[in-house]
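O-antigen translocase, Scleromatobacter humisilvae. Tokens?
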Amino acid sequence: MTLVGTTLLNGIAVLARLFTGLALNKVLAVMVGPTGYGVIGQFQSFAGMIVALASAPVTNGVVKYTAEFGGQPERRAAVWRTAATLGLMLSLGLAVLMVCFQRPLAAWSIADADRSYLVVILACALAFMVLNALLLAILNGLKQVRALVVANIAGSVISALTAIGLVTWQGLNGALAALAVSQSVAFVVTLFIFRRQVGASLRSMVGRLDPQLARGLGRFAIMGLTSAIVVPIAQMVMRDHLARTLGWSTAGLWQALWKISETHLLLLTSTLSVYFLPRFAEIQDAGELRRELKRGLAFVIPLVLCTSGLLFFGRNQIVRLMLSDRFLPMLDAFGPQLLGDILKVVSLVPAYTMLSHGQTRVYVVTEILFSAVLAGLTVWFSQTMGLRGAALGYAATYALYGITMWFVLRRLLARLGSKPAPDLAIAAEAAPS
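Tokens:
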């Protein structure tokens, strides 16, 4: 499917996630306020880290090899079987550890050991979350965009309804529980769509590991594990610092600002994942990769500039719509946060070439380095400029990250045997005049 076709279809899924996210954010903002939002953010980071740890072997590696072995059904089935077995083994091991250490984990993640039951709920749901991620990755690798869109829409709606019901029933505790179970509830729908579209059963996808494929998936798992550990920890460090120095209310405002950024970038980042990750994985020619990069930049640069401008000029109304009047103090940080969004999107296009070509060592080093840079700059800038300083730290980090990714891209193109590799001028060539 073409980039435009993929974007349009994916846009439908993004709109569904956007509307369900708006509804959920509104309920959360009214029910728990900025302080509760900060606590939710802490547990969300913890849950995201655990889920990413368990699903590391079943995400980007599965997308790459499913796309790469498009004409080899037996090899492709071996990829799925190996990934599913690895993912289930890892999720079972993590679940046992979480149950054994539930109170210390609850005390660390949300500073409340008495809420350790949330860790147990997350442990019980973990295997279903891993299987959900695996099935979505297979659909992505097969370029079954329509099925992937339907699965994402259904999952978003069901997860949001589950969360809204639990929040309405139990307030903050319900919101925290929803984070632990929402993806596992979506698995039921994803499995139904997968069975109809692909025809493979879960039973056929669990069995003997292929050692060669396990090593290949292991490279991607290392990248996923790195992100699973360092990114949430960096967020938790930043949130904890803001809570200790400026109060949990400011930490909640920062969390809401990040949530708006996630919603803002949803179409762009999900399109990069759905279209460019399998597409870049197929490309082994430097010239073709250069052309695809230009197409990607020509797509993302004007779009992110347009959406950022609309958000900036409508920021007052957007905060009132998505959240409530209690979140209006975050408006001062909107400008630098949107600048960070723009820089992030431009840097992600070359970053996906690194991910799709399995440059494990470079990925691990840059992920650790820039997570540390983000946490460090956020802490440093926020000490003198408060919430606005935290947003400036985000923008500065992605400026440095983007420059680094273009140098990484030059090395990849040189390795693929290109003519002199592109530099930042590609962005200028790609942007419309």
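The chain has a mean pLDDT of 80.
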